[in-house]
Write a structure and sequence with these properties.
By secondary structure, the protein is α/β, with parallel strands linked by helices. 24% of the residues lie in helices and 26% in strands. Strand 12, helix 6 and strand 13 form a beta-alpha-beta unit. Bound molecules: NADPH dihydro-nicotinamide-adenine-dinucleotide phosphate.
Length: 311
Amino acid sequence: MSQPLKTIILGSGPAGYTAAIYAARANLEPVVLAGNQPGGQLTITSDVENYPGFPEGVMGPEMMEMFQKQAERFGTTVFFEMAEKVDLSSRPFKVWSSADKTYEAETVIVATGASALYLGLENEKKLQGRGVSACATCDGFFFRNKKVYVVGGGDSACEEATFLTKFASEVHLLVRRDELRASKIMAERAMEHEKITVHWNTEVVDVHDVEAGKVNGLTLKNNQNGEVYKVDADGLFLAIGHKPNTDLFKGMLPMDEVGYIQTHPGKTATDIPGVFVCGDAQDSYYRQAITAAGTGCMAAIEAERWLESHE
Ligand code: NDP
């Protein structure tokens, strides 16, 4: 039987690759299982303009290729496989992948990220990055003087709608019930904003893209009186929640009710010694590439020190 890996990193977004860069430079010879969306959520955005070091901005997929190359340069091995099952009950930990391989590792760095929830409409996926977005912070800038719609009634929706008023000429908030779920302060901020119009009991039925593959309208439905109508729109922002990709660890690691893994305060360490969690799998609050990268770095440093103290 070959020696267990010093560390295996599950996930290949900014958190996973940053953990890999640090782990590789500490001679931990990390293996990254890239998952079923290699590069993570940034590969579905277009320009990234808020990541320091790119004054002209950078395309999300291109940035993630650079992360990967940088990790490989120092000795990271990347496999385009999905972790399908893990056993964290004893060391070495075991990971079974979609390529029918079994890995054993002394430490595991979980960087499986989160996925924005979408409505499930046929055109919605097709128009991602072309008017449909689940991240106002990332894409809001491209909607200067445009008319945008935000779906959701929680803190994210209110926050994103308020953020979008910096750019858009009109922001419409579509709420499926007749009340917001958001905290009072966020709700008030959105409802009192002169650029924001709230549409109660309203759902999106379809997204239109007659003009060159870009969103140019929506079909909406009032779920109280059944009225269905079309509106012009340049953008559709989904803010109906995120789901951390942590199902694999249910029952093994403590999670909040949504599924975000709980780490020790100020650390990426978990209740299982040798298992570290970074990025959006544990962060419901910031959810930014830069913060994910930061916690990826933390996870690698913690893993390295943990290994040192156990050798
Ligand atoms: P939430 O789960 O709180 O809210 C989701 C919203 O989307 C709800 O209004 C829900 O409607 C609506 N929704 C869900 N599915 C659909 C659908 N298919 N069609 C239409 N609407 C739908 O998610 P958030 O992302 O807003 O917040 C997650 C957590 O993060 C919360 O704890 C929140 O407080 C926190 N947060 C805090 C912020 C801050 O403090 N600055 C900023 C952003 C988030 P319904 O109400 O009918 O279920």
